């Protein structure tokens, strides 16, 4: 018997119906077609299989021995296929399926509790499957293996095959008991942490490593005789009076502020970005995308809970600087900034939507190693920082090397702008540069230095670098961003602080 592949799914469906009812005319009535059309489906199957499938009798038809074999197999197959198609329809419209989520130990409580309730209320047919992973690396491995749809991580350097989408930047706060002298302050400077005995997160965790690097970058040395595995345990020990602790201001942290602890912002420390990791956002199922968006909406609405308000921080002269990855929703704002005269003078970038999408889109989607960071002042966008490793852009590295600039292996560079004209001239650029450089030591643990070329005529920019602690290492002849300028650039550098 030779099967030539001309059998259709409709042929099999009609044949199964005929076997079930025993009537060609009955199936024709059910399908709204002629009995001849039903017979043609059966004849096509018999022609393709080379054997009779139905036996005609006075009161209808019954399957032959061969027909019973085909009927049993086709009925099972069509039933399974119909169930699969139903599930696919549910998946496509977001009413069914399973969303597999990788989380850390305290992730669900702090970031997802409200979102889970809202999501299940709106999509009761979707199953949520949570899997605790011990590190971001394990989350990435599970995503690449296809065993997770989403993973909640601390945002870090680009990872091949993985898109990272920031959701919220978490300022650092000092958790102290209400009777502590530091509890009454609206903010605490990083220098005030010197000499404190902190309950610490382990240095092999991303958040712990970032905190250690930020403190080292600011020249602050703290002590510790207690290490814990998660933020909740650190807060519990601080509540018991066993020490101070510096933790990210996770959503809902303010609820604990009504008890024995107070949470005082430490604005000198760069914020901790957290969010989703996926293989491809465009390839997420509708339920997975809906869950990710629900979590993001709930997080951004609660992230600042428990942190003193903007007025209190500004009264203390320390409005809080944070940043997050640029998203495509920020592109109209970037276009507006690039069109501002004080920005256009030095960046000389086409502000059109097409140009912004072309040049910022790949990084926003996690497809390019450059980090485009939207800088926020007390939550309001004021500027942009671009940060990248020279190794990821060898053409730029080679241009600097040819001009005599020393670019160590692993070195990082930054570019920056203050987009809001009202925010210029207030020393904000210096604070942003200082904070980003301090964060770089944690974000890029193999980076020995930050090297920044700046046009010699851009005095405001290189003065901000100097005030932020970078030192001028020389001059170089480089192509300017604005062709109206000459090629003279100053080169500034900051080296990784020595371990203390």
Question: Could you please describe the fold and organization of this structure?
Answer:
- This protein has 500 residues and is of the alpha+beta class.
- The chain folds into four domains: 9-92, Winged helix-like DNA-binding domain superfamily/Winged helix DNA-binding domain (Arc Repressor Mutant, subunit A), CATH 1.10.10.10; 94-169 and 271-316, 3-Layer(aba) Sandwich (D-Maltodextrin-Binding Protein, domain 2); 172-270, D-Maltodextrin-Binding Protein, domain 2 (3-Layer(aba) Sandwich); 320-495, Gcn5-related N-acetyltransferase (GNAT) (Aminopeptidase, 3-Layer(aba) Sandwich).
- The chain is built from 16 helices and 19 strands.
- It has helices at 9-21, 24-31, 35-49, 65-92, 107-122, 136-145, 206-217, 231-239, 286-302, 310-315, 331-339, 341-347, 353-364, 394-402, 428-443, 459-467; strands at residues 54-57, 60-63, 98-103, 127-132, 150-154, 163-170, 172-177, 197-200, 223-227, 245-248, 261-265, 272-278, 321-325, 371-377, 380-389, 412-418, 449-455, 471-477, 488-495.
- It has a five-stranded mixed sheet, with helices on both faces.
- Helix 7 crosses helix 15.
- The longest helix has 28 residues, at 65-92.
């Amino acid at each position: 018997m030779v099967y030539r592949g001309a059998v259709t799914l409709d042929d099999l469906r009609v044949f199964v119906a005929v076997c079930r009812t025993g009537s060609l005319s009955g199936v024709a009535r059910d399908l709204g077609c002629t009995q001849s059309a039903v017979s043609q489906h059966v004849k096509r199957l018999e022609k393709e299989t080379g054997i009779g499938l139905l036996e005609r009798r006075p009161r209808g038809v019954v399957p032959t021995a061969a027909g019973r074999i085909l009927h049993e197999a086709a009925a099972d197959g069509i039933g399974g296929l119909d169930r699969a198609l139903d599930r696919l329809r549910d998946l496509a419209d977001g009413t069914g399926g399973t969303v597999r989520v990788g989380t850390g130990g305290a992730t669900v409580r702090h970031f997802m509790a409200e979102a889970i309730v809202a999501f299940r209320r709106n999509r009761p047919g979707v199953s949520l499957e949570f899997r605790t992973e011990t590190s971001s690396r394990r989350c990435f491995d599970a995503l690449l293996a296809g065993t997770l749809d989403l993973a909640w991580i601390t945002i870090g350097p680009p990872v091949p095959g993985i898109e990272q989408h920031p959701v919220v930047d978490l300022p650092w706060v000092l958790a102290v008991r209400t009777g502590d002298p530091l509890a009454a302050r609206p903010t605490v400077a990083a220098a005030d942490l010197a000499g404190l005995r902190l309950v610490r997160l382990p240095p092999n965790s991303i958040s712990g490593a970032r905190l250690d690097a930020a403190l080292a970058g600011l020249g602050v040395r703290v002590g510790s005789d207690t290490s814990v595995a998660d933020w909740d345990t650190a807060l519990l020990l601080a509540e018991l009076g066993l020490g101070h602790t510096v933790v990210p201001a996770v959503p809902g942290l303010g609820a604990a502020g009504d008890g024995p602890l107070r949470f005082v912002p430490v604005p000198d420390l760069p914020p901790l970005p957290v969010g989703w990791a996926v293989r491809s956002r465009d390839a997420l199922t509708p339920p997975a995308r809906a869950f990710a968006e629900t979590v993001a909406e709930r997080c951004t609405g609660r992230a600042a809970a428990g942190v003193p308000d903007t007025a209190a921080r500004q009264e203390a002269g320390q409005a809080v600087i944070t940043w997050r990855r640029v998203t495509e929703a920020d592109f109209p704002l970037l276009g507006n900034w690039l069109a501002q005269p004080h920005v256009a003078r030095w960046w000389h970038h086409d502000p059109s939507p097409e140009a912004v999408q072309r040049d910022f889109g790949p990084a926003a989607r996690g497809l390019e190693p450059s980090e485009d960071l939207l800088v926020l002042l007390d939550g309001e966008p004021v500027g942009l920082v671009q940060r990248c490793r020279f190794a990821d852009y060898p053409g730029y590295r080679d241009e600097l090397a040819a001009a005599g600039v020393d670019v160590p292996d692993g070195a990082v560079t930054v570019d920056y702008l203050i987009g809001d004209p009202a925010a210029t001239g207030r020393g904000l650029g210096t604070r942003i540069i200082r904070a980003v450089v301090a964060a770089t030591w944690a974000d890029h643990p193999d980076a020995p230095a930050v090297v920044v070329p700046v046009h010699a005529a851009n005095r405001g920019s290189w003065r901000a670098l100097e005030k932020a602690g970078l030192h001028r290492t020389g001059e170089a002849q480089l192509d300017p961003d604005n062709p109206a300028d000459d090629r003279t650039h100053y080169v500034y550098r900051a080296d990784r602080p020595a371990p203390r």
